[in-house]
Design goal:
By secondary structure, the protein is mainly alpha-helical. About 65% of the residues lie in helices and about 0% in strands. The termini are far apart.
Length: about 190
């Protein structure tokens, strides 16, 4: 997962970055499976890989990003990136070695029928309003992404269906009579 994450950041092609992010999601899903959280693992694959990454691919392909300008500032911001990375690693180490974040062996969260039932029970009873609110926010975000990327470009040819319907049959086909040429022998 770490290798795929590094590849995602350092890839020069945006499509390769997105494919590396897909690999990151698959490997993190495997970690969820190892932690016996099957529902979260399959949800990660279905939602992020199945929907969000496809949306990312479409947006990256539609925007036609000039990667030469992006690569120019890569070395300039490297010291800041290294400092931020070291701070994040230090925070993660502090969280892992802290006594406050230790896992309890006995959990009231898991029902007899499994953690999927428990998650569904809590999600659709106690947290129904935040769940529905998140769904509406995601819907608005998808519509906004489509509206922002939908624009007329000068270099692309577009069709106007209204103009196509107005055309009559006599305007579409024009029969031209040309005199025939005599065959010349070579």
């Amino acid at each position: 997962m770490v290798t795929a994450a590094l590849r995602m950041i350092t890839a020069k092609n945006p499509v390769h970055s997105i494919l590396s992010l897909v690999l990151v999601f698959f490997t993190s899903s495997a970690i969820w499976l190892l932690l016996e959280a099957e529902f979260l693992a399959i949800t990660l694959v279905l939602v992020y890989v199945g929907a969000v990454m496809v949306l990312f691919l479409f947006v990256v392909m539609m925007l036609n990003i000039n990667t030469a300008q992006i690569r120019e500032g890569f070395v300039k911001f490297m010291p800041v990136a290294i400092v931020v990375s070291l701070i994040m690693i230090a925070e993660l180490v502090l969280v892992v070695i802290s006594k406050e974040f230790e896992l309890e062996r006995e959990s009231n969260f898991v029902f007899e029928s499994g953690n999927t039932h428990a998650l569904g029970e809590i999600l659709y009873t106690d947290y129904l309003l935040p769940f529905e609110t998140a769904a509406v926010i995601l819907l608005v975000a998808i519509v906004a992404a489509i509206v922002l990327t939908l624009r007329q470009r000068v270099e692309t040819r577009t069709q106007n269906p209204g103009e196509q319907i107005k055309v009559k049959a006599k305007d579409r086909v024009r029969i031209v009579s040309l005199p025939s040429e005599d065959k010349k022998e070579y």
